[in-house]
Amino acid sequence: MRQYFGRKLLVYGLTFFVAVTINWMIPRFMPGDPVASMLARARVSQPEAVEAMRLYYTNLFGFDQPVWKQYLNFWAALLQGDFGISVWVFPTPVSTVIMGAVPYTLGLMIPAVLLSYFVGNRLGAFAARRKVLDNTVLPVGYVLTAMPYMWLAVILAWGLGVVAGLFPVAGGYSFAMRPNWSPQFVGDLLLHWFLPFSSLFLVALGGWAIGMRNMIIYELESDYSNYLAALGAPQRLIRRYAFRNAILPQITGLALQLGVLVAGALVTEIVFSYPGLGSLILKAIQNQDLFLLQGTFLFIVLGVLIANFVIDVVYVVVDPRTRTGMAGASA
Amino acid sequence: MSLTVNGLQVYYRTLKGEVKALDGVSFSVRDGEILGLAGESGCGKTTLGKSLIRMDGRMRHAGGTVELDGERLPIADDARMNPYRFHKVSLIPQYSMSAMNPTRKIGKMVGELLRSRGVKLDRADLEARLAQVELPREVLDRYPIELSGGMKQRMVMVISTLLNPSLLVADEITSALDVSTQKAVARALAGFRDTGFVKSMIFITHDISLTYQIADSIMIMYAGKLAEKAPARTIVTAPRHPYTRMLIDSLPEVGVRYGDKKLSGIPGSPPSLLDPPTGCRFRDRCPLAFDKCAEEPPALEVEPDHFVACWKA
Known about the structure:
The complex is a heterodimer. In chain A, 79% of the residues lie in helices and 0% in strands. Chain A is built from 13 helices and no strands. Chain A has helices at residues 2-29, 34-42, 47-61, 67-79, 94-129, 131-146, 149-163, 183-220, 223-230, 235-271, 277-286, 290-318, 320-327. Chain B has 9 helices and 12 strands.
């Protein structure tokens, strides 16, 4: 058991290292000069002042050092929890900017992923046993899962937001309000949350339902199901066993899908101008904000890795076969 | 008479038409009798075994009756058949290696299965039965994957016979096992009969020599019909049907070197059951065939307990 998790942790550590390195490289290879854009924003006309500012900023961000040194400095700072200073909202630290956005993204992602997973699996399992439900759930599922996140988001925003006027189409809360814990504000927050959540939830739902339907049908045809049926076990017991076995590939599926789900959430946030990490990435790119960009990426990588690790642990708990493999016992 | 099958016909529905896999088979099995059911693949032996406990969705009961302990089994009605399953008729399947739910501990699975059939698990009885097939009681706390193939096979045998069924259908259960395990399994089955865990048994196999070791009588099937049924010794030493004779002749014998003498097989292959020929179905491969074989031979009792479906018998 310890050996298994030791190996897993090593792989995760390696993944983290590579991902962080790539995160560091990408913004630096982007065209454009962040210092130049800051200077342009400052609108200073005197050449000496411009030169002085350029020197100051270059030194502040460490761009005057050789690239390998910048890389090492970056790791040193990172290990101390220092993500650098944002160019876009200078001089706010990147970590502060990200922390302001993370609750929105998590508040969107976690319910959407978990709810779509549970509802989708239940729905798929139900569809596998009823013809009528199967004939409706399956096509709807295919349409939903084939839809790009942002497209469904645009359709929902247009249909329920613009045409029906039921929901606001942009922002995390009304611009007229200040964040606090009053019931009105929380209600407003939920109202703004609903559309981005729905588009994430619906697209993911279709995929889970289809996957689960196919798995259940497969499991109901399997040998242990046939054996139980031959011994006259009620359908209830057979289906319970089938569900338990069918959920295993779905758990692997969740681990594989996490990255896609995160990407979908980021795009959806941009459609709704939702103040989460997705919108932050867009702002960072638009403002040549290397530090904010790499900080956000880092955060996402960390989140996906942690989620994957949790799924690994869950898998060990639910599938006895992985445990046997770990102990080194032969099957 | 424990089991009486009368003119049983079971067809498979396919896109090309109905495949007459079982076309009028009659026989009976006495209390305490082990009937070996042999024949080449496609002769209908597995279909017969399945018909007695649970027909799958493609099978259609086209005629004939099955009576067990004087009660007529509703084999065509899945729901009405359910009370008989496990309690009266039980099955050891071909696929024992994968017959148990891989994500449940075996003991828990057995408990859940019994509870679902309205029976309380008698732990002491279960452990006694495990001991009889030389399984430690710890297997109940293991997952199926932690057992070897032979252990899984024996575990399934114990589960299937837990409610002391009147009839046990053992379908090709030794095919996946090595020779030494085969013998142990065969002996365990005979032991089940001797201790009264099962009253009678149908042992389906294509291995006549193994059947001969445990069966009281052997039934040979060919192309969905009964060819010959007789006490085991008679089938092996004095077969009457040409198919049985050729089948026995194609087995290797101890002490004979086959370097000089070629082992004889049966030339040709069985007819298609989608549109079976009239008359005797073995006619095309039979060296003794004559004009009368165009008529279907009835299964006649040529001696007590010896049935042969051949005009020349």
